[in-house]
Design a protein that fits this description.
- This protein is of the alpha/beta class.
- 35% of the residues lie in helices and 18% in strands.
- The strands form two sheets. The protein has a seven-stranded parallel beta sheet, sandwiched between helices. A three-stranded antiparallel beta sheet has the order 6-5-7.
- The longest helix is centred in the N-terminal third of the chain and has 15 residues.
- The chain is elongated, with a radius of gyration of 19 Å.
- It starts with a strand and ends with a helix.
C-alpha cells in the first residue's frame, strides 16, 4: 500500500507509470471520488445523499412510470442539491485522465459517474455506464436532447416535460433504480478490461455492481487502485494507492508523459 501524495512511494508510482507507457491496452475506471473533488456530493457513504437527504424509492423507474410529474419535482430538487453553486467543472484528476487518453496511453475511461465531466475535460472515449444526467431521452420516440433546457421547463411548471417531437415524457438519460445498465456499454467495458494490460480504478469504493465488477474481468496484467479508503480489490491490486485522486492522478500522468 502507498499513501499520500506526500506519502506515495515514488518508486511504485514510477513503476506504474512505466507499465502504462509499455501497455498495449489500458483503461481507467472512475467513481464518485472524482465527482466529489468537483463539489458534487456522493450518493453513498457517511455523507451520501441517499437515506438522510433523499429516498432512493423516489428515483425508481416505477416512480417515473407511475408519477412522472412527482418524479420530475423530486429530480429537479436532487439536481439542484447535487450541483455546486455556479456548476461543476472538471478537476485535476479529470484533466490528468484526459491527457493520458489523448496521448493514447488509455484506450478509454469507464465511469460510474453521470455528470459528464470526463467529456468536459477532453476525454474522447468515455463509457458512461450509468448514463449522463446532462441529457434527457424521450420514452416515446427515443429522442435525446440537453437536460438543462428541459429542467428550466420543469422549473416553470411543465411537469412532466414533454418531447417536442412526439409528446412523450422526457426521462433523465441515466440508469434509474430498477433499470439494468446498458448491455452494449457494459459488454464493451468488460471486454476492454479483459484485454487490458493495466486497469486503473480511481475514486471508486468498488462496491456497487455490476460496474464495480469491471476489474474482475481483467485477465493478467496489473490493477492499480487509487482511492482514499481500502476497497474489496485492494488486496489483489498490484498497486494500492491511498490518496487524493486530484493529486495522485496528475502525478502519475506527469511521470507517464515525461
Amino acid at each position: 500500500m502507498t499513501e499520500g501524495t506526500d506519502g506515495v512511494d515514488p518508486d511504485a508510482l514510477a513503476a506504474l507509470a512505466s507499465e502504462l507507457r509499455e501497455a498495449d491496452r489500458a483503461i481507467a475506471l472512475t467513481g464518485a471520488g472524482l465527482s466529489a473533488a468537483s463539489g458534487i456530493p456522493t450518493f453513498r457513504g457517511d455523507d451520501g445523499v441517499w437515506g438522510d437527504v433523499f429516498d432512493e424509492a423516489d428515483f425508481h423507474i416505477r416512480r417515473f412510470t407511475d408519477d412522472p410529474a412527482g418524479f420530475w419535482t423530486d429530480r429537479l430538487e436532487l439536481h439542484d442539491h447535487m450541483r455546486p453553486e455556479g456548476g461543476a467543472e472538471p478537476n485535476d484528476a479529470h484533466e490528468a485522465l484526459a491527457e493520458l487518453e489523448n496521448a493514447g496511453v488509455l484506450d478509454a475511461v469507464v465511469t460510474q459517474n453521470t455528470d459528464g465531466l470526463h467529456a468536459a475535460a477532453g476525454t474522447e472515449s468515455v463509457i458512461e455506464l450509468h448514463g449522463n444526467s446532462e441529457r434527457v431521452v424521450c420514452r416515446g420516440c427515443g429522442r435525446t436532447t440537453g437536460a438543462e433546457p428541459v429542467r428550466e421547463r420543469v422549473r416553470e411548471g411543465e411537469r412532466p416535460p414533454a418531447c417536442d417531437d412526439c409528446g412523450g415524457v422526457y426521462k433523465p438519460d441515466v440508469v434509474l433504480f430498477g433499470e439494468l445498465l446498458p448491455k452494449a456499454d457494459l459488454r464493451k467495458a468488460k471486454n476492454l478490461a479483459r484485454a487490458s494490460d493495466v486497469v486503473v480504478a480511481a475514486g471508486s469504493s468498488l462496491t456497487v455492481d455490476p460496474a464495480a465488477s469491471i476489474p474482475s474481468h481483467q485477465q493478467g496484467g496489473s490493477l492499480a487502485v487509487v482511492n482514499l479508503e481500502s476497497t474489496r480489490y485492494s488486496g489483489r491490486a498490484e498497486y494500492d494507492v491511498r490518496g487524493d485522486v486530484t493529486e495522485v492522478l496528475p502525478a502519475l500522468a506527469e511521470r507517464v508523459l515525461e
